[in-house]
Amino acid sequence: QVQLVESGGGLVQPGESLRLSCAASGFTLSRFPMSWYRHAPGKERELVAGITSGGVTTIYANSVKGRFTISRDNVKNTMYLQMNSLKPEDTAVYYCKRPGLPNYWGQGTQVTVSS
């Protein structure tokens, strides 16, 4: 069955970096555009970044533009989110998302940015 497993989160100080990974199984990643979302306490879940199936085109939320980079390795069936210059407001649980599965969310990975 379809499975998305996020990893790479942690506790970092402002200005530091993290690289998140999303391991996909049960389907061929290369057939789908993919996205990263995040959900912070007391806030709505928001789209952070998206990438087309071939990885040519990317989109970013204004709040992360210039700091985050989404990428993918279709051979490894894995997607990534490089997060630089992290800020406290980036604190959230981060999820990867595949279209066509509106009710499926993985377990997410917690990112906490705090001094």
Structural features, described:
The protein has 115 residues and is an all-beta fold. 0% of the residues lie in helices and 47% in strands. The protein contains no helices and 10 strands. The protein has strands spanning 3-7, 10-12, 18-25, 34-39, 46-51, 58-60, 68-73, 78-83, 92-97, 109-113. The strands form 2 sheets. A 6-stranded mixed sheet has the order 2-10-9-4-5-6, with no helix packed on it. A hairpin with a 6-residue loop joins strand 5 (46-51) and strand 6 (58-60). The protein is globular, with a radius of gyration of 13 Å. It starts with a strand and ends with a strand. 29% of the residues are buried. The model has no long low-confidence stretch (mean pLDDT 96).
Shape: globular
**Oligomerization state:** single chain
**Main sheet: strand order:** 2-10-9-4-5-6
Distance between the termini: 40 Å
Low-confidence stretches: none
Helix content: under 10%
| Strand-residue proportion | over 45%
Question: What pattern of helices and strands is seen along the backbone?
Answer: EEEEEEEEEE
Strand element count: 10
SS class = mainly beta
Largest sheet: 6 strands, mixed
Taking all Cα atoms into account, the compactness measure Rg is 13 Å
User: Tally the helices: what do you get?
Assistant: 0
Integer average pLDDT: 96
SSE order and pairing:
Elements: E1 3-7, E2 10-12, E3 18-25, E4 34-39, E5 46-51, E6 58-60, E7 68-73, E8 78-83, E9 92-97, E10 109-113
Parallel strand pairs: 2-10
Antiparallel strand pairs: 1-3, 3-8, 4-5, 4-9, 5-6, 7-8, 9-10
